[in-house]
Amino acid sequence: MEKAEERLLALRKLLEYHNNKYYIDNAPEISDIEFDRLMHELEALEEAHPEWYDPNSPTQRVGQDINREFTQVEHKYPMLSLSNTYSEEEIRDFDTRVRKTAGEVQYVCELKYDGTSISLTYTGGELTQAVTRGDGVRGDDVTANVRTIRMVPLKLQGDYPAEFEIRGEILMPFAVFNRLNQEKAEAGEALFANPRNAAAGTLKLQNSALVAKRHLDCFLYYLPGENTPADTHYGSLMKAKEWGFYIPPYLRLCNTIGEVWDFVKEWDKKRVDLPVPIDGIVVKVNDLEKQHLLGYTAKSPRWAIAYKFKAEREATPLISVSYQVGRTGSITPVANLEPVHLAGTVVKRASLHNADIIADLDLHEHDTVYVEKGGEIIPKIVGVDVSRRKPDALPVQFITHCPECGTELVRIEGEANHYCPNEEHCPPQIAGKIEHFVSRRAMDIEGMGEETIDLLLSRHFIQNVADIYILPERRAELIGLEKIIYPQSFEMTSIPLAKVIYGFEIGLKNISARLATMLAGRFSSLKALAEAGKEELMALPWGESKDIEKNVNRILDYFRTPFNEPLERLKAAGEVADIPSDDVIFAFCIPGVDRYKAELLAASYDYIYELATASESEIATVEGMTDTDAVNIRNFFLRNEKMVRKLNTLNVYRMQEKSVDNLITGIEKSKTAGFPALLYGLGIRYIGETASRNLARSFRSMEKLMAADYEQLIEVEDIGEQMANSLLKYFARIENRILIERLLKYGVAGEMEEQAEENNILEGQIFVITGTLSRPREYFKDIILSAGGKVSDSVSSKTTFLLAGENAGSKLKKAEKLGIRIIGENEFKEMINDK
Length: 835
Description:
single chain, alpha+beta, Helix Hairpins, D-amino Acid Aminotransferase, Chain A, domain 1, DNA polymerase, domain 1, 5 domains, five-stranded mixed β-sheet, five-stranded antiparallel β-sheet, globular
């Protein structure tokens, strides 16, 4: 195989991987710039070698975001992506190509909004359908969710066509995004990578009421088809505006490519002031007839191009590199940095991903590094300023042993990451194994989420999956068990304005949390509150508060009082809704703690609570702190415990009596999940759901499976050499056999239930299982599959039966709407003669 062909195939595989990380997992690993660079390289190779054409190449498709939970709809007009560039030269080349074909043209310049694309259909002036881009040919019908977006008109006004489409972008404003991620962080949940992913994820929620609470925006910018209301793109948008659509005001008609470039430069500077995310400028030919003349490629229109802004970048010193262990044993290096302002936040950490990245950067200790933050929440190091490197600086060496358990790391050939092989005793991996065991597709133990598992592990209630079945005996000990959740942060944390008002008692002595929240909700910053007049304050929704005028006068007097040093320091944070933690620490006015030391403390302690509970000796180890500073800081927090409680942004996870009882119920119920579920739950390498089911059917019990040899294993359907060897290796380990013996001793089903002779009574039938049933879903799924039926995760017109338990929810409603037969457990048992 030629080197060029090898590279082409590698690029296709790599881009497909990153496409999935971006669109499916909502967890992008590389920047847009890097993705586009790889895509352009692949396009060039394919252009040079047309004999290697592949219709499934990433260059032949737009990204896809189809979700099986929604009905798929074919687009009347394909939703294509735009060709894009980061280069002024390529913008000018685009202009040359356009004028060569279409002659003199006028351009419309628009902001390129960074959200999720949507196509709206109106019939008789009413919204009848909203469909995502999907794969460009078909997308998800998300009409119910889009109807909750206030910017989307449900009924039009004026002289609109009888039926038409209009397209645009669903966006999540920065304020909503920051609040949502703050809530997720406090709950210990994974953060959204960026507003774009948050908008896309929200649009795919099954609960429209929750979508409404997310306050999405919808900016519209294109009317496809031939029956447009005007001869120009701009004119069509202005007509759409008359009908009631929100057309963004940031449009400009440009007669020359020089004017276009002026618009690009202008918004590259002004974009930070916008309330919604943009990542570039879109340039379109205005004349629709000339658009038609220019036509399309397989992937994008020839009459438009997108210029994408480069991500923001700053230089800052590297303090150290720390290492995190994932639930699968994967090791991720993280750069700890001197705090630096970047894209509206203070960044103090950046992901380094793996050892190859460190080597490619040629990273040395205490290097000055370039940190970049585009649309992503997690910043990245993209380069090193070698000119500032100290002569005696040593290269950063990737660790050789696990930071959690001390085991020597391994790296599998062909993989980028290092792994800890100590699956049985490495704490994060133990947690990962337990999470897999209790998951819905395995033992389906309700009430045992990630936080519960972490809490039980940290308090030594469980060390492996068998320990779960002892928990019912320790019910009394479990009630009241609690831990503080420390979400990981790559940025300098900040304190919401409401908590700052509440904690510092700004405006009113002993101000209530309700009033503090009300004031924070009405004013965008502390500065705005300080500048409010009496009339404005009197008009606030004070509710049942007594002496409103007296309270208003007290607030006014508070802000007029001179020499209020804490207030002045807080106001210096600027017009921000959330006050950075270093500004809050500085506002404590602790003797000896100046602005610089406040920044050092904030860099060392992610949360005020952590600093407040640190000992004198711990504080003294922070760079720049003296023993006297440590004493003063500790004394301040001892005297101000009430303030600390009010300012605390961390959540306490506590197991209440009801949640403990629900957990115990889930544990007992899981004992009947069935042999296939148990086998899958053990997490044996390469043994997935299908393999577990086939093995269980063939051997009928765990005892017989454990006694099987290689020849017996590979006779099972779909079990190959790799799977067979993995099973033999797993069962050969004495600790695994002991674990299984314990599980069986505690009553977990390790045999297939004896049923009537297997037949194909359900052949051709497609089931969807929903709601709370008497046994785990896997039990019913196994019966259906054994009888020749199929099980789907989502209701569609192809569904034959909905097996519904209690609290069936949206799937039940959809089945009723589609006229699908709905059955309960008793009817299901009659159907399969399992009385």
